[in-house]
Design brief:
Strand content: under 5%
Oligomer: single chain
Number of strands: 0
Structural class: mainly alpha
Number of domains: 1
Number of helices: 7
Radius of gyration: 25 Å
Order of helices and strands: HHHHHHH
Length: 203
């Protein structure tokens, strides 16, 4: 097969792999939050989210991860000598390895939620969701830039991006908690009128 077709297939399955990873963790968050609701709403939502997770995980995310890795390995083996001598490729493979560890940990969370085990809170899952974003930025920039002179600036940019994303998640959590605590404007309770004393109180 022409290497261009292999590259095209690799890119397609990388895109669907990341799409699956982004969405599966959102479903983890939704199921975790649904578990805190009262019945029958909790049972209905949890059941629906489990169906969506199963179809996404085994129908899109796992097949995409495997096929993206197969086509990526195909290209790497064909040009192993040229690629392995380039620092950006070695660093990219490290990030790809981290992506696979992320995939495996997501599978652990998937299996736990299937058994109604919720070890991570909603905010921790939101932070976990952003790890895939950071890995996506790192891999894409490495492939596009390639220059070893840009690796330092790229690393600095990745650190700043990570800090910005995590800060945004914490701000979102603070704002959300604040809205849940504040009573609605129409729910204010009027204080009781002062009691009157004297003959008028007995009439």
């Amino acid at each position: 097969m022409d290497i261009k077709y292999v590259l095209a297939l690799h890119i397609i399955f990388v895109v669907t792999w990341f799409a699956g990873l982004f969405y599966i963790v959102r479903l983890f968050i939704y199921q975790r939050e649904a578990n805190d609701k009262d019945e029958p709403e909790r049972g209905i939502l949890v059941h629906q989210f489990r169906i969506m997770q199963k179809r996404l995980w085994f129908g899109i995310t796992w097949p995409s991860a495997i096929l993206a890795s197969i086509f990526g390995t195909w290209m790497l083996v064909g040009n192993l000598g040229a690629y392995i001598a380039q620092p950006w490729m070695i660093l990219k493979l490290i990030f790809v390895g981290a992506l696979w560890l992320y995939q495996i940990q997501c599978h652990v969370i998937f299996a736990q939620q299937k058994k109604s085990i919720y070890k991570l809170s909603s905010i921790k899952l939101r932070l976990w969701n952003e790890v895939a974003t950071i890995l996506l930025f790192a891999i894409v920039f490495l492939v596009v830039v390639k220059s070893s002179g840009s690796l330092i600036w790229g690393t600095l940019g990745l650190v700043l991006l990570s800090a910005f994303i995590f800060l945004a998640v914490f701000i979102y959590k603070k704002q959300r908690d604040k809205k849940q605590i504040e009573p609605a404007s129409g729910d204010k309770i009027n204080p009781e009128p002062p009691k009157t004393e004297g003959p008028s109180a007995l009439s």
